[in-house]
Design goal:
Strand content: 15-25%
Largest sheet: 10 strands, mixed
Order of helices and strands: HEEEEHEHEHEHHHHEHEHHEH
Distance between the termini: 35 Å
Number of strands: 10
Amino acid sequence: MNNDPQIRKTLTVSFSLAQDTAILCPSSYFLCPHYFNKPLPFYLEELTSLQFLEYRKNSRGVQLFTCKWLPVSDPIKALVFLCHGYGMECGTYMKECGEKLAGARYAVFGMDYEGHGRSEGLRGYIKKFEDIVNDCHEFYKSICELQEYKGKAKFLYGESMGGAVALLLHKKDPSLWDGAVLSAPMCKISDKVKPHPLVINILMKLEDIIPSWKIVPSNDHIESAFKDIAKRERIRKNKLIYQDKPRIKSGIEMLKASLSIEANLHEVTLPFIVLHGEADTITDPDVSRELYKQASSIDKTIKLYPGMWHCLTSGETDENIELVFADIIDWLDKRASKAGLESFQPKQTHNHGIDKLTPHEVNNRDAEQAGFPCHDSASPARHLSKL
């Protein structure tokens, strides 16, 4: 055990398991020190979060991998539910996200969709986008109903395709969620990566004939999503991530979901923050701007990061990743309590503005050209040196 306090602060207690393990330590709250009134061993004194891994069956009998990160210190501020992107997974790829949020005293829960990560199913295959939404809703709602979490605020956290999942979860049960963090959400497939309309038409005719074939034209999404070369190569080594071409049915289901969301952005009513790299070529930053403009939410914030790519919390430099997480946690902290949420529900509708992390003159010019107010006074100049 390394006793360097800077290293010990990032440790998590995790349980490794084989893919064929049915259940691992269900409801293992007794392992978390703030549920068990005993002092921590000296080598865990700097521990900030604990990770738990478990399998559960969905309503279709499919084994789905789930994970959670619990903060060591009391009290838990709120609950955060992760929705990962296409081909990605929670247990390893989103582990740092879980640790960061749990270290800030949030209880964090994630699930690998069917066909993703450690869950059962054909790799990278989405038979019905609705199945993903229903599986997440079933599992996440069961967590929300646990007695120990009664009265806690509940936030969705969606990255890329997971942003679409989060928005559809909100649409399915608007009263359940208190807010959402949307990182480069898939509200539309960028024209830069979307196949030609003729190709789409052909694929739609083939989706019921050869649905699982991997023939959807696409660029190397890892190459396009992860700006930091070292992090990009680390992602390539993660064999739980689907790295092949999208299957026909998967591509069509994602396209249909994004078109549906794009056409109904005005139906979004929950508080949200949308974050997007302006150099993103996977999901279009302009659609995040449209989400911000069209959403009926009273409490809505947008942050755009010049020069950053698609994977804001895992594919940028360490300095930029810290910047993005600081923005996310700051937004959550202000809304984690009932009083905090109510403070963002004024009698008169207002938006919290667009936070363009650029020098003041460029910020005002771009905001005016885009038709946005620039009201967010929390746009710290200190961020500029970090980009």
